[in-house]
Backbone:
């Protein structure tokens, strides 16, 4: 049976590490990070029960890389590469033909290119192509749930001059009533707009100011390379949907606390075909959980699974570029094998339909939600 492997890592030092080492919940985060820095990668779950509509079956391994996002950004790049290479070697030992990079492991360095060159006996993908596909699908579906049909909505893309942002804008422009491209470089924005406009259903405008570009947008996709948040509570119109594809996040955590009239999602939750289970090795009856409903997975993990089902043990989504053709291809693979968008997540948790209904009601309620009187310019531009 074909096998895949997928790298995960702790997003929160105390919360996530304590699942494996309970004493960690009593320690300072820096102490926990020092501890896990000296641990080797490990297999934390076997993946069984994946069965395509074509009847093809695969199994996989979840491999934990013991580094937090902060460590991946702060530690020497060569050290991080070494840890990821250890994960890859472990995947090879487990018989996997392709390795997927999850969360910050797909962001660090050059987006998997160097890692793929060092791992000669296994293919590598970041999963970014299907991540973009589900981000677009999720933003459109969430927009509909908030009362915004794509053909009648103004869409803004923050970070529109980057490869992923430009691809999102190009695909959405096929149907959107209008597109706002937001970025730092006017010349690059103009070139992107000129490329997109001939195939766009509506006008394409450019902005270098986040607040101006977002103020009328009903649907927003943001995917910058900024280290700090670029979207603050006062930037977003009432009732808007914001899909944050960036890592680190582009949307400030303040939005979740202060704006109960906007919906922030981080892409889609994907229903995996079959009856996926995640038993922990050596622990009969115990299942691994990364906080999603049973039988569902991240889009990047799903791309890895799809490539394994196809028998395509080849490097796929690598580097910082994602093309329209790659995105369309992953959608076709998803349809062929039965992967479907089933829900949303926000700030690492699932967002139920009832919560979306409450947000929509808040957006429609009067009086308006109180907002800061003055616009505060973000320290980082997209």
Residues:
């Amino acid at each position: 049976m074909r096998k895949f492997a997928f790298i995960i890592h702790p997003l929160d030092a105390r919360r996530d590490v304590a699942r494996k080492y309970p004493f960690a919940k009593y320690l300072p985060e820096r102490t926990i990070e020092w501890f896990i820095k000296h641990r080797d990668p490990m297999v934390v779950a076997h993946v069984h029960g994946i069965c395509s509509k074509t009847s093809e079956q695969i199994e996989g391994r979840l491999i934990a890389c013991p580094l937090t996002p902060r460590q991946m950004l702060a530690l020497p790049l060569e050290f991080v590469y070494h840890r990821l290479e250890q994960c890859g070697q472990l995947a090879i030992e487990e018989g996997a033909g392709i390795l997927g990079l999850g969360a910050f492991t797909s962001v660090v360095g050059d987006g998997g290119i160097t890692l793929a060159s060092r791992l000669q006996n296994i293919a590598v993908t970041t999963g970014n192509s299907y991540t973009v596909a589900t981000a677009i699908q999720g933003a459109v579906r969430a927009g509909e749930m908030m009362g915004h049909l794509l053909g009648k909505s103004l869409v803004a893309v923050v970070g529109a001059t980057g490869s992923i942002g430009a691809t999102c804008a190009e695909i959405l422009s096929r149907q959107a009533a209008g597109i706002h491209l937001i970025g730092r470089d006017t010349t690059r924005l103009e070139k992107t707009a000129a490329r997109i406009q001939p195939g766009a259903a509506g006008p394409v405008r450019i902005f270098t100011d986040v607040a101006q570009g977002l103020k009328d947008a009903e649907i927003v996709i943001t995917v910058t390379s900024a280290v700090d948040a670029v979207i603050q509570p006062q930037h977003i119109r009432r009732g808007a949907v914001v899909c944050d594809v960036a890592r680190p996040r582009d949307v400030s955590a303040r939005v979740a606390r202060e704006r109960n009239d906007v919906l922030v999602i981080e892409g889609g939750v994907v229903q995996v075909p079959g009856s996926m289970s995640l038993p922990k090795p050596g622990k009969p009856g115990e299942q691994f959980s990364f906080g999603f409903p049973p039988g569902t997975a991240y889009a990047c993990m799903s791309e890895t699974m799809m490539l394994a089902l196809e028998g395509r043990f080849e490097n796929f989504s690598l580097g910082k570029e994602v093309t329209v053709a790659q995105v369309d291809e992953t959608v076709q693979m998803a349809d062929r094998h039965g992967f479907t968008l089933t829900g949303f997540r926000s700030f690492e948790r699932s967002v139920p339909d009832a919560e979306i209904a409450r947000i929509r009601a808040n957006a429609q309620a009067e009086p308006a939600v109180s907002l800061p009187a003055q616009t505060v310019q973000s320290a980082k531009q997209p």
Remarks:
- The radius of gyration is 21 Å.
- The longest strand covers residues 42-51.
- Residues 128-145 form the longest helix (18 residues).
- Confidence is low (pLDDT under 50) at residues 368-382.
